[in-house]
Amino acid sequence: MGERTRAGAVALACVLLAGLVSGCSGGADPDQSGGSAGSSPTAAGPATPSPPAPTASATAAPDDGLTAEERVAFEEATEVVLAYRQTIADLYSGARTDLNDLDKVATGDLLDRGLRNIQQGLSQGYRSEPMGVQLVLVSAEPVSVDLGADPPTVVVSACIDATAVMDVDPSGNVAQGLREVSDYHLQMLGGSEVGWYVAKETAARLPEDRRC
Predict the structure, then answer these.
(1) What's 179's domain CATH number?
(2) pTM above 0.85, yes or no
(3) Which domain covers residue 159, as residue numbers?
(4) 61 pLDDT more than 90
(5) Structurally, how many domains does the chain consist of?
(6) CA-CA distance, 178 to 40, in Å (whole number)?
(7) Residue 81 lies in a domain
């Protein structure tokens, strides 16, 4: 995929990820939020598919310094990361129709912006195809695990392959989803369902630095 083509993909990806990923905009401050999978607009149709992703590796290495309890927390949080990204993709494809499904995997300002921006994107005609396509977790590594914090926190660096997704803008331009790495900041919260929730997503400022 050429640089101009990829730039179009990134732009559409940022729209469909509902402006949730910090650093999604090339010139944006990486501490401000921007994000689903995107690809380049093409008059001819979908972009050439990327090679299949390797099998996911979501388990921290034995020498990562984590305790057994911390490793369990990391693995549970990693499952939520994929569920979070899958929920966004499903909402845009129509596989899910209840926007409140996002509050099962996200929290705080990320959740509020997500609900607002996804609803706006859908109303403007942004969508993804095919319905129900599955994203792939390529790899995941623990950045930090702090179970003593209030609330407990885990930061997961995850490479997610969304190249099976085709994003469509209101004009009918099609862009192939991206395979990129982001850092996902999760919190353990109580309430009706105790579990890990994504509170923030950050990514490198430049698209080439997000490739994985």
Answers:
(1) 3.10.450
(2) no
(3) 3-25+32-38+54-210
(4) no
(5) 1
(6) 10
(7) yes
